[in-house]
Fold:
Amino acid sequence: MKITILGSGTSTGVPEIGCKCPVCTSNDPRDNRLRCSGLIETEGVRILMDCGPDFREQMIRLNDFKPLDAVFISHEHYDHVGGLDDLRPFCRFRDVPVYAERYTAERLRQRIPYCFAEHLYPGVPRILLKEIVPDSPFTVGNSKEVKVEIIPVRVMHGKLPILGYRIGNMAWITDMLTMPESEYELLNGLDVLVMNALRPQSHSTHQNLQEALDNAKRIGAKETYFIHMSHHMGLHSEVEKLLPPHVHFAYDGEVISVG
Structure:
């Protein structure tokens, strides 16, 4: 399995518009963070984790134009769904399946109704919106009939229920503040955990750094990578030195191998 970090930043991205702090003016490319997203490739199946407003730029940077077999949506917020219209080029291969729970799927239909009309006008992305249920495994596959099992995991974005995803021995969790006690067992035995850590200071809807460290320790993955970071986290080169062994700050363009 290969995980490519397409974006490791929070909703404003880094640099943040108008900010002149040391992080936003840093020349270290690891401090330049597009909105949060990742590409998971396993057994020939390619899965996009969220599709935010930087998706077009992320795909151009990746320079690897191949079919997307699935797009997994964590929740409805714009920084995670604002790029869905830019799936259009990938529809040249085939319609793109987009997976979300019912609450999120309903809001996507309201927000971009032209993508789900009975009669689509030319050029509209051909999205197959598929509703999933937390804790209920499902499979996705590629054109060669290779299937991969996925477990959607319930996490809480403040008071908003959203989804993380387990794929084999890795899990991708973003925008979490807390997790229901019953969900932790779904994350046993991970080789890699990719999880949000917003900043050192507390936040009402996201884990801060200490909360993320505590959850990383409890989940016990062999390696943990933090994503969805704001400029308040500090300079990558400095703050990563403070992390315990086997815990890392992810950065845009980073490639992580599993297994």
